Amino acid sequence: MSFKQLLYILLFFFAISAKASFLLIPMDETTQRNHLKAYGITYWALDKQYKISWLLNYRGGSFLVPDAPEIRKECQIRGVSFEVLSDSESSSLLDEISSPSQNMEAVVLERTPKIAVYTPKGKQPWDDAVTLVLTYAEIPFTPVYDEEVLSDGLLLYDWLHLHHEDFTGQYGKFFGAYKNAPWYIEQKKEAEALAAKLGYSKVSEAKLAVAKKIRDFVIGGGFMFAMCSATDSFDIALAAEGVDICEPMFDGDASEGNYQSKIDYRKSFAFKDYILERNPNVYEFSDIDMTQKRKMPMEKDYFTLMDFSAKWDVVPSMLCQNHTQLVKGFMGQTTSYDGNLIKSNVLIMGENHFNGEARYIHGQIGKGMFTYFGGHDPEDYQHRVGDEPTVLDLHPNSPGYRLILNNVLFPAARKKKQKT
User: Fold this and answer.
1) Residue 208: exposed, middle, or buried by beta-carbon count in 10 A (0-12, 13-18, 19+)?
2) Organism's domain of life (predicted)?
3) Percentage of the chain with pLDDT > 70?
């Protein structure tokens, strides 16, 4: 064999060993052009049966995917940044992440979670931050509402989001400001008609039945994510089971006397010892929410994400992946939670230390898990009825919306369903 032939052979084997075999989808602040669509790419690749590693705490929670032409093309179409890694580079990267000295972990994602969004019929994507970002990221979901939930339709899904619903049957406590508004009157009629169709004499009774079905979904192994008023109203509805807390303008008869003493906090997912707001004209459910108690200018309204051990606290680490630990705050009917009213077994993942309020919390119920995120829209500081919809093309790197998508992707890491 000549020297020239030997050189060609060596170059051939070098080319094979140096061949790119992985793509890194970086999620740090400076490199990724579109953080939100990067989650959509990851979901899309999972649906194509590609195995993906979520690199916790590595460059903002990056994704390592196989180098396939269709993945490259899809990234280019959606405007998602990626880097090409050789086999040796990816091995070196995974070795670095696995080192005991590094607060990092590689979590293998194996399946696409089936996603449902509990939302009234006819709602547009921009009415709710989760449906808005799912649509923007091109992650498929199925809308469900009371009929589907009560007929055990949730058994088809792994992940459920609760739209900004009022599970107490008080129509969002909008009575004081909007009782004469045509949209309020119409929504009240629609809710009453649906409750009657489902066999309930009151909306509060129908919503309690729905809340209990959702509770059972979580206990059986489902994952529930809720924002804004869906969080505390859901907890209150469960704790007030069998107790009439609605005033006449909501359900046609008086509330029970001294109903506060009959609230069973053990039935709530996350909160304890809260005091319900009895005044029907006050836009508030209880003292869980900090909206009316907080004194903070918008420019100083930020909350901090907790720093967890990626190797030992894998779940909260996944849920907190971001390119910044400081996330700007945003308001809603339920903006944040009084830290003193959160149960001890519930994990606070994001809080405003200055104001003593929790913004982002997580817990386990039975075989399932839930996450509550205070506020209405991470990129609309003080969302009001009738405001223009948020355009996510203007916020492709939103840290607040990333937290939502962490929750969407989290069930992909679960090995199998654990439903009863």
Assistant:
1) buried
2) Bacteria
3) 92
pLDDT of residue 289: 96
Q: Give the end of a domain, one of 82, 109, 136.
A: 109
Question: Given this model, what pLDDT does residue 17 score?
Answer: 40
379 domain residue, yes or no: yes
pLDDT single digits (tens) 284-316 = 999 999 998 888 888 889 999 999 999 999 999
Statement to judge: residues 311 and 397 lie in one domain: yes
Residue 419 lies in a domain: no
Average pLDDT estimate for 143-157: 97
Last-in-domain residue among 109, 132, 148: 109
d(CA 208, CA 252): 17
Give the model's pLDDT for residue 1.
54
User: 83-111 b/e with 16+ CB inside 10 Å = b?
Assistant: eebeeebbeebbeebeeeeebbbebebeb
Strand partners, 361: 348, 372
Number of domains comprising the chain: 2
- Are 137 and 39 in contact by the 8 Å Cβ rule? The answer is yes
In a domain, 40, yes or no: yes
Indicate whether 195 and 344 sit together in one domain.
yes
Instruction: Give the DSSP letter of residue 256.
Output: P
Question: Does residue 12 surpass a pLDDT of 60?
Answer: no
What is the pLDDT, as a whole number, of residue 355?
84
Q: Return the structure tokens found at 345.
A: 């077994």
Using the Cα atoms of residue 121, residue 123, residue 125 and residue 127 in order, give the sign of their dihedral. negative
CATH code at 344?
3.40.50.880
Instruction: Give CA separation, 84 vs 24, 26, 65, in Å.
Output: 6, 11, 10
Q: Residue 238 has what pLDDT?
A: 98
Q: Are strands 115-118 and 142-144 parallel, antiparallel or unpaired?
A: parallel
CA dihedral 283, 289, 292, 296 (to 10 degrees): -140
Tell me the average pLDDT across 37-62: 97
Would you say residue 408 lies in a domain? Answer: yes
> For 29, phi and psi rounded to 5 degrees?
-75, -35
**Structural domain of residue 103, as residue ranges?**
3-109
